[in-house]
User: Fold these one by one.
Assistant:
Number 1:
Amino acid sequence: MAAVEAVCSRCQGKGHRAADCHLPFFRSCEYCKTAGHTAKECPLLRHCTYCKCEGHTNRNCAKLLAKRAKARASDDSKSETSEASNGQSGVSTASTWASSPPKKQQWKRWTEPQKPRMQALTEDEEKQARKVEKKLREIAALEARLAEGETLEDLQQKKVDKKSEFEDCEVMRKLRSGYRRCELPAKSLIEAK
């Protein structure tokens, strides 16, 4: 098998590899295929799109810069004459500024937590809430009897002890947080009893 001569991918020279090349590593230009610059900085590709001249870009074009400076000067003179005739400053641009809110207000609006809509209990939750309220009324009556000095039976005492469980149930938490009560039809009221 014959030995293959190595070709450098940096300088295109024969007899050595890119790792052993004397040239420093640069990205090669995709336009002129030489190392040391990219296509964006290629001297062959540099030309102005405004005046179509080579050797400079739109950023450095003297003709384009002069045109922009002239346009700025005419805009300044127009704004000065409109201020003088109206007697107010910034009248011409105020309408465009007022159309969109400032960025800070937009950001605040996006980051604010959404307020929950006024939600209502379902029919089942309403039935459960009415049952719990009835038990709480019974417990309040038992506590009033206890405060008067009467002794309660064991079952009645257990009911009084469970008051916190009834108050902390999910339906009562929803009612405390602002859920609306649900109107039950007459048929379901009869079934609930």
Number 2:
Amino acid sequence: MQEITVPDGPPEWQEFRRAREAELASPYGWLTLTRFDWLPESDATLPGLPGTWHSDGENAYVTAAAADGLERDGEPVDGTDEFTVAETGRAHWLTTADGQHIELLRRGGRLAIRARAETSEKRENFRGVPTYPHDPAWVIEGKFHPYPEGAMTEVGTHRPELRQRLKALGEVTFTAGGKPQKLLVTTIKAGASVEFHDPTNGEETPAWRQLKFDDPDENGRVILDFNRTIDMWFAFTDHCTCPRPSEGNTISVPVRAGEKKPL
């Protein structure tokens, strides 16, 4: 593993950066993914994996012999094993003979598996994510406008064949670069976030980025610290299902704050 140096900035931002880099560099993390497979409707083999696999829509199934080396919770799979997760969820299911972790995930109502190795060349060479210098001007006060409980929105994802329905929490309005801005606020697993485009996308940053923020106060006031903007997992691996920004979630001025394109 390469040594990662945290950029200069306020102590709380440096702590945020340390936690972020540690998450990315962890074993079996987002830099060690090896595959992604939608599970077929009928029993079939998956190249490079033992056994046969399928999903009936509700549950995932694998059929293997003990000699195939698949384990669940430390016990060999000898016969048919089933597992399931809720929409947007993911959970460790199996371990392969060579130590890879097979997780099950559900996106858009479909079940898929994804494999994580303990480490990878990408992880071993990781030196951190490039960031813009911390800029206090990008700590912006906004106003949160809630939607009715249960509101949903449908968005595209990193995978062209997949669209996802997310909880739509409301809209946040603020001023950036002297211009009014409005973004849809969603929740993917927990907490409020905005996925957004801006003019830095492509040359300086990935195709879109994400900012998470704390709950509003009793007056709807929120603090948007764009220095904490992050690259979503698609910037590091193709084996992901990251939601794209909802239609219109574009900041009209360049957001030169937070993470840049990974090296």
Number 3:
Amino acid sequence: MSLKVCVICNLNCSRREMDMAKLKVYLRANGYELTNKKEESDYIVVTSCGFINETAKMALDEIESAKKISAEIIVTGCVPDTDVDKLKSIFTGTVIRNTELEKFDDIFGKFHKLSDIQEVHDMTWGDKYFCVEVSRGCPENCSYCATKWAVGKLHSKTVEECVTEVEAFNESDADKVVINGDNVGAYGLDIKESFATLLTALPFKENSYSALIDSLHPKWLLKYYDSILEAAKKNKLGMIVSAIQAGSERIIDLMNRKVDVHQLKEAYIEIKKYSPDIILGTEVIVGFPTETESEFMESVAFILDTKFDWGHIFAFSPKDGTKAAAMSGQIEQQEKMRRIDFFISQLGENGYVVHKEEKSQAVIFCKKEVCLRANTNDNVYWQHCLDTICPDRSKQSKYLETINSGV
């Protein structure tokens, strides 16, 4: 009788989702049965996100719940590095970090090692997506970020390997390919290549809007702007996700993400000018230490001026051990939430709909017109935006009727 493994991956992180998709293939290859029922499992693998304190708490709560079951628990993902003390206070079992996934072989590798398993391109977004991970790790040092400790140093695949994987996408039944990495724009720095070289080499079809560029730091967008704009002009790109985090140059400098804000704003606007159907996504942090009211308003203005299609808003979350957590001028949580509520009101007045996630408290915003177009056009990017705003597809028709009527 096969031993049963429950893999818990309640994340909104395509990188860790890919890790777990590969793990599931590996487990089956080694004779294990996968189950969604924790109570009947012999092993429970909990994948964790430590991006903000709220997502770390969700993972810790999941671990506490799993401890009530007589199964061996294995914790992986980012929390073992982003929230070390909090994890140790509740869990003394097996931990496997993102940078040492080969240690799964010590537990499950009866017939095959994890390294024997071919790349898995599936995503929980659906079978219309094909994910290509071009690199792992991050060379940046953002002052608020603890995730950098969890993903390790940059390791890039060769250009040839990435081209081969995109060619496999072109031969597949998938509609869209996600070009992915912990810091995709830093691709190649470790192997004397560049993201621009990679983007030019990848065989995307013109007028297909087939590629989604995920996790593109604004500094790399500007550095490789000519190559990115050229791909956009040829309608090769369907979506770019690029986290601005703030609209104030002073705050961005404090975040250690130095970039010319005016130049960045013009770049996003120009991309949209030459490729009107491209989806531009972003992230904003509200209430970073010492952020003034006027600097907060610069973030609001940046989003409204550039007309981003979709994005996330987070209240600043001080992660233990980061430079930002130790800064003076910390802003009270109540004030952060007041600013977020104002942000939501401004978005509502400018043609956006919003959804606040109950557990993480993240705010997701999306242009109303994008949600409505998702219902009338077979565009998986528009559908993805709608799914983030209204996750329950059985309720989407009613939701669209509501926003269309302006109720």
